[in-house]
Amino acid sequence: MFSKHYSVLSLPLLLVGCLLGSDATAKPLAINAGFSGTMGINAGVSDTQSQFNIVDDNEQTQDLNNAGEAVTTGVLFPFFRLAYTTADLKTQYFLGQSPENILNSAIQYEIGVTHQFDKRQSMTFAYIPHVPFLKETWSDPFLTGASREQTDIDSNAMRVAYKFAPVQVEYSYASYSIEDEQSGSQSMSCNNQSRNCTAEEQASLNRDSDYHRLSAESSIPLWQGTYAKANVFYGTQDAKGESQSFDEFHYSLSIMTKYERHFVSVQAAFTDREYDAKNPIFDEVQEDNATRYSFLYSYTEPFDIKGSNLNIIYQKKENDANIEFYDSSTNFVSVGMSYSF
What we know:
By secondary structure, the chain is mainly beta. The protein has helices spanning 6-9, 16-23, 190-193, 199-204, and strands spanning 34-50, 70-85, 91-96, 110-116, 121-128, 136-138, 150-164, 167-178, 209-223, 226-239, 246-259, 262-279, 284-300, 308-321, 328-340.
């Protein structure tokens, strides 16, 4: 299991009012050729309980029968997106956080290109490189009675999307590598901490993996200025450790409305995940049921500053697992300003 940086995972939400609110109603990739972009800063508070919340207050756990310490942290973070659109308004190159994955809590900095064939059809290709220190986890999350060591998660990913309005189909691939993978290496770890893990059992806990996802989404106009977006995806993770491999099914529904200077988006998302083999630490096959509820309010041009937005975000996330160690919850709220040009 990887770290869950819930506070920063909500970063893509900040682009909704600036990007999605306009992209969903406008046919062209941009109004004018040349450079455009969005930049801003947000301040927030995150209340998180998770064994994979990589903070000092959560370094130690006395046993594996709990979901970790509940920790409240303040967060200050910048965000950006830069794009260049060609003279014919048919091709756009972009860098930064992408509006394509708004509200999915997957923070990613990507570089890519979108080409629009006509008013209904377009294709996007993007590469998501590894960013040092952005993703971290515990080297051995099952270590008890001592401080767990942090280690980086090296990752690379790509996505390809084809849109035939109002439907978009996307394939995504990601590879993950734990720099110092030591899961289950401490003594008396396996079978509910009753004995040492064998070499084979340690190998089954290896989190290095390849992840594949196929998704489809569609926007449905409800009335003027308001529409719904439905998204479903199937994902599969093929990890070196069989107990860390899983299949998952996700579905979500978003309602978005824009009236004068006001933009509001609400979303409910649900994910069911089942792992392939028994986890030797707990002697059970892990199963997760995750929920996420998101709310965004954006006010355009506060103080009559052209191109600016005031953004308010609230997000609640929970993971209910059959193994208590993997339960998690977070409440996140933030306020910030952005500027588009």
